[in-house]
TrEMBL record:
InterPro entries tied to this protein: HAT, Syf1-like, TPR-like_helical_dom_sf, TPR_rpt
Pfam family, one: TPR_19
Protein origin, superkingdom: Eukaryota
Keywords assigned: Repeat
Full protein name: Suppressor of forked domain-containing protein
Organism: Hevea brasiliensis
Length: 415
């Protein structure tokens, strides 16, 4: 393999391919081949030996024609490292060709259909994306196919088609909560609040333990009928889902929004009794106490959950406030290391470096965030899932979240 990589570096691609083809099977037990070859290819990819990795996958696919995991990895390689044109990182046609071969070899793999759909959708080919999803639906398709189909129509602004697909999906998969959420959000977007409420309530009949549905219903009640209605929904939600930190946090926040500080404090104390190891609750309780008490509150939090990224990021904010720059940086770095998938921590870290770091630091955090491809986080998802931000790259979303954090801080200062 080293020889093959050396040949690739010297520009002798055909030699590299020949070496791999003739030696990759040597000394590998038959039952270990798939695992070993994929691991070898991924190692080569990490070292930047893309041709060698490509040759390993090409050979592996002649042996394992119907293994979807190898097809997906090979397509991923092309998508990220295809022949680089100046303006295009990766090679969409090459990835497309691999996926077309893949679904010829394994016609019923939904994973491959969805990977092909994603490739087209992310590269602004909505018609191709639509066609792939229509075919996947014809083949039966699971709930994911119906959800993605509705999302495409939502982005293209085809409200009626979006509704039809969600309704049809719900007939087939009534316990798939994401479709209920999508339908409720669709009605809310159109200003049909009563209808949205009915949707969330129907959804909860099918999925009583779905927290996002409870939270959506509570928010909607607060919008339509004020705090006491929202309070009733959240109380009911906690009855049916005890020891759920998110439901407690929503109740605390609802009281805070309406200026009921005492109520919020009482609820927070109850919440921490019921969920003593919840990082999100401890982090919120640190922010709720007056500034002089925050230090001791954060000591309590660290005793209960010292490896929780929410608590760690709340402590980082205290150091940042006290201008303890190095300590703040260390703690922010711990938060993103523990939870690289949570975009909120990256946004906080990046905002911190914009204030206190060098350009090097800023570039470094940005690069690491892009590599981590965060998908979660309350503020992150609020922005990344907004229709107008569809297809935005990680960097663009990160910068929008930083702006949102700034606005939030200004509002808090005014209070």
């Amino acid at each position: 393999m080293k020889e093959a990589e050396a040949a690739e570096r010297a520009g002798s691609v055909v030699t590299c391919q020949a070496i791999i083809k003739n030696t990759i099977g040597i000394g590998v037990e038959e039952e270990d081949r798939k695992r070993t070859w994929v691991a070898d290819a991924e190692e080569c990819k990490k070292r930047g030996s893309i041709e060698t990795a490509r040759a390993i996958y090409a050979h592996a696919l002649t042996v394992f024609l119907t293994k979807k995991s190898i097809w997906l990895k090979a397509a991923q390689l092309e998508k990220s490292h295809g022949t680089r044109k100046k303006w295009l990182a990766g090679d969409v046609p090459a990835a497309r060709a691999i996926l077309q071969e893949a679904y010829a070899a394994i016609p019923n793999s939904e994973e491959i259909w969805l990977a092909a759909f994603k490739l087209e959708f992310e590269n602004h080919e909505p018609e191709r994306a639509r066609m792939l999803l229509a075919k996947a639906r014809e083949r039966g398709g699971t709930e994911r196919v119906w959800m993605k189909s509705a999302i495409v129509e939502r982005e293209l602004g085809n409200t009626e088609e979006e509704r039809r697909l969600v309704d049809e999906g719900l007939k087939r998969f009534p316990s798939f909560f994401k479709l209920w959420l999508m339908l409720g959000q669709l009605e809310e977007r159109l200003g049909h609040l009563e209808k949205a409420k009915e949707v969330y309530e129907s959804g909860l009949k099918h999925c009583p333990s779905c927290i996002p549905l409870w939270l959506s219903l509570a928010n909607l009640e607060e919008k339509m009928n004020g705090l006491s209605k929202a309070r009733a929904v959240l109380t009911m939600a906690r009855k049916k889902n005890p020891q759920n930190p998110e439901l407690w946090l929503a109740a605390v926040r609802a009281e805070s929004r309406h200026g009921n500080k005492k109520e919020a404090d009482i609820l927070m104390a109850k919440a921490l009794q019921e969920c003593p190891n919840s990082g999100i609750l401890w982090a919120a309780s640190i922010e709720m106490v007056p500034r002089p008490q925050r230090k001791s509150k954060s000591m309590d939090a660290l005793k209960k959950c010292d490896h929780d990224p929410h608590v760690i990021s709340a402590v980082a904010k205290l150091f940042w406030h006290d201008r303890k720059v190095d300590k703040a940086r260390t703690w922010l770095n711990r938060a993103v290391t523990l939870a690289p998938d949570v975009g909120d921590f990256w946004a906080l870290y990046y905002k911190f470096e914009l204030q206190h770091g060098t350009e090097e630091n800023q570039k470094d955090v940005l690069k690491r965030c892009i590599a981590a491809e965060p998908r979660h986080g309350e503020k992150w998802q609020a922005i990344s899932k907004a229709v107008e931000n569809a297809h935005q790259q990680t960097e663009a979303i990160l910068k929008k979240v930083v702006v949102a954090l700034g606005k939030e801080e200004n509002a808090a200062e005014r209070h």
